[in-house]
Amino acid sequence: MNKILILGHKGMLGDAVFRYFRKNKNFAVITIEERWPGQDFKGKITTLDADLIINCIGKIPQKKPTRYAYKIVNYDLPIFLETLGVPVIHPSTDCEFSGLLEVGKKYSKTDIRDADDEYGKSKALISKMIEDEFLNTKIIRTSIIGHEKVSSNSLLEWFLLQDEEVSGYNNHYWNGITTLEWAKIAEKIILNWDFYTVLNQFSCKECLSKYQVLCLIKKVYKKNIIITPFLTPQTINKCLESDEPLPDLRSQLSDLYEFYKC
User: Fold this and answer.
1) What angle do CA 87, 121, 7 make, to 5 degrees?
2) In this predicted structure, what is the pLDDT of residue 84?
């Protein structure tokens, strides 16, 4: 049986990953309460004898961290995990890219990471280092949507809390996946470790505007709310090419809805 350590199990991604792997009898799931970068975290993690680590810890711009916080969590933590000598799955993001790509095109794995904000740069720098230098870590690069336990910073939780008319960006394009789909991909990588390269990129085939994404959530979650399309001055396209075909977003959202309803 594989002993898997899930870091960040109380966050949006970590909660879905923890719930998913906990239901699988082929894995023994462990977590820790100690917080990075404390010495108690470093000491505890070395005693757990995990066969594999799934890192779901990350600083995101919605919580307005400092540049130092981005460095400590998004950059320094993956470097520390690599030194432990066990396989690590690392989450990356479409925010490695600026989003100034022509509409209709998708970012490939060979495109230059051109993010110019602190969050995107922190993710791009460590992703490049992992790809060039690390021996034990594999990257899942995508963008995620999912449920949160302790806040409502994500698009899904924010939308579900609304009870009046909301606006949805009609010129911000996205083709990410749910946190549940991310967990399924992580399992597949674990079971076929040598088959996958260091950098793995996953996304839905269809690029949707954020307005269209909200409309899908409305249908799946049976939310009675008016969504008004809204154009921003700058069109953004962060759609990614995918290494493998995945279910469409509506199917993924339906699965996520049922998964969290249990």
Assistant:
1) 35
2) 98
